[in-house]
Input
Amino acid sequence: MSTNNPVAEIDNSGAAAVSKEQFCIAGLLTTVYGLEQLHADASQVGCLWLLHPRLQTQECMEPLARSMISDWNSRRTDDGTAGGDASSLGPVAVSFDQRNHGSRSVLPLANEAWRSGNRRHAQDMFSIYHGTAMDTSLLLDHLESYIFPSASRRIATNIVVGISLGGHAAWQCVVHEPRIKAAVVGIGCPDYIRLMSHRAAKSKLDSWITTTLEPGASFIGSADFPPTLVEAVQKWDPAGLLMNEQYASTDHSRRSNLNRETVERHLGGKSIFSQSGGVDKLVPYSCSQPFLAFLESIAASSTSSSGGGSKLIRLKDVVYADVAHEMTTEMLNDATAFVMQLLHEARTSVAR
Output
């Protein structure tokens, strides 16, 4: 089975070309876009981590790199001096193959779904994009020593942009990696149990339909979604970690306070833009909506303990009507505008 490339229809023909250079970092073939376009005065860098969809490779993220880097660099005046934002901070973008994809392919079946004969779909998909989040943190440790070996520039902010499988990974990055300050999640899901339950029902797995109770009652904890996978989800999945139900039936206020404290510890001061397709059948918005509503309720009632009266989390949740499992040009334009605002804020912070 193959799936359509969710970014195949993006039109960024108006975006300028940007340089790209490949490095082998920690054994990972890593592409860095935009190094040659950095302004001579840009001592600080905003790094955009581009995480690709399932069954694709890092090359498919080049349109996003071109759009975001060229948009920022177009803010220069004709003589190359600062046109508002472009001089003191500049962007680069980084892409690499997710585990078992592209240059790292080991077993193609492990990238497939239950319907395509992969009986370990739940274990494979979660472990692969969990690995991608870990790889992002690993590359964060080492990237600067490769691209700026003389320490002439430093990375001032990190933003993760993920599509589909990369969107799932982007959620883990922004929740668990303190150096990631923002995320754009395109058609990704923060709630793995809801997503896999939806997929198990659509696939008519025996563990979903063979039960004396209501359909699905035996799925979680079955061979299709083993107990130890549940433990991993509770540790690493945003919904599994942050939507703690421990005190749901005994002490609601204590549960709410614990959730708020946990959310602040993982997401305090961060910005998230969730983009969903209104008719996406593969990663439906209904699987993400409960967690996003939970996050919004905490964001609306809290300010960050870091001070200044700022909101605990900045969450933008947009559902694009009539969009299936794809990243459209409109979605890319909105994502680019969101990233431009974040880079402007980082540049302003650096200038203080």
